[in-house]
Specification:
Shape: elongated
Number of strands: 2
Largest sheet: 2 strands, antiparallel
Order of helices and strands: HHHHHHHHHHHHHHEEH
Number of domains: 3
Structural class: mainly alpha
Length: 260
């Protein structure tokens, strides 16, 4: 059985989907083997090759594995064919995991067209706001902006926004926090969760990650510098105590960095 989807291998640069389809349609296969494997490779390469294998060599079709491969390779046509064929056969959690991996990849192979397509068409991810946190991990800002802007204000709860902020701080991307703030600063859209009040646990994680730019951004923020204006609780200014804890975290981090 020939392996479909090998045009990137040495000596096969001229093999096109059309050539593979002709080969599949014109050859005789007495005992075809590894049909499922060939279908999976084809799913990430060409929907025409995939259809030719399925038509010529039998009805076997592992929807789940083929969809995973198609998402991994960013093949819109194959994803469309599989979903229309029988989307209910796929395992939703692993599909979501593959979508998240694709969106978080920090390289030029991440297709904006494909990201927009899967978030608009795949039912198991199209309303999943948790995917925005994965987009934070991508070094291409346009990927984050695309994913973030595909969700309405109503879908972005305080919990969702806080999660995005924490992810941005831990990955040294304070500019993403500014994008959030700019979106909601207009009119009556102001959201208290965007005032940048990370928990001590988050600050500790940021410090352990040595995310210096995030810490600098936080300690220069108006939220931090105005902490002394909060009301007294039990004889202590609540946020001043919190501020002291924050500074202690940074001190410990700096000391650790010197010792390493």
């Amino acid at each position: 059985m020939v392996k479909a989807g090998v045009p990137n291998k040495v000596g096969s640069k001229n093999i096109t989907p059309q050539i593979l389809c002709q080969f599949i349609n014109n050859c005789s296969f007495e005992k075809p083997t590894q049909v499922d494997r060939a279908l999976k490779f084809a799913a990430g390469y060409s929907v025409d090759v995939m259809k030719a294998i399925k038509t010529r060599l039998g009805p076997f079709f592992n929807h789940h594995d083929c969809l995973i491969k198609a998402i991994k390779k960013g093949c819109i046509e194959t994803v469309t064919m599989i979903e229309l064929d029988d989307f209910e056969r796929v395992e939703k959690n692993s599909i979501r995991e593959q979508v998240c991996r694709y969106i978080s990849m920090s390289n030029r192979s991440t297709s904006l067209e494909f990201v927009a397509f899967i978030l608009d068409q795949l039912a198991c991810v199209k309303r999943d706001t948790g995917i925005i946190e994965w987009a934070v991990l991508n070094d291409r800002l346009e990927v984050f902006e695309l994913v973030f802007n595909m969700f309405t204000d109503e879908m972005l709860s305080d919990t969702v926004l806080s999660g995005i902020i924490d992810q941005a701080l831990m990955n040294e991307k304070p500019h993403i926090i500014q994008i959030l703030q700019q979106r909601f600063k207009r009119g009556d859209k102001s959201r208290p969760c965007l005032e940048l009040r990370p928990t001590l646990k988050t600050l500790h994680s940021v410090a352990q990650s040595k995310a210096y730019r995030s810490l600098e951004y936080y300690f220069n923020s108006s939220t931090f510098t105005n902490m002394g204006n909060i009301s007294l609780v039990g004889g202590f200014k609540r946020d001043r105590v919190r501020s002291a804890h924050s500074l202690n975290i940074v001190a410990n981090m700096v000391e650790s960095s010197i010792l390493i």
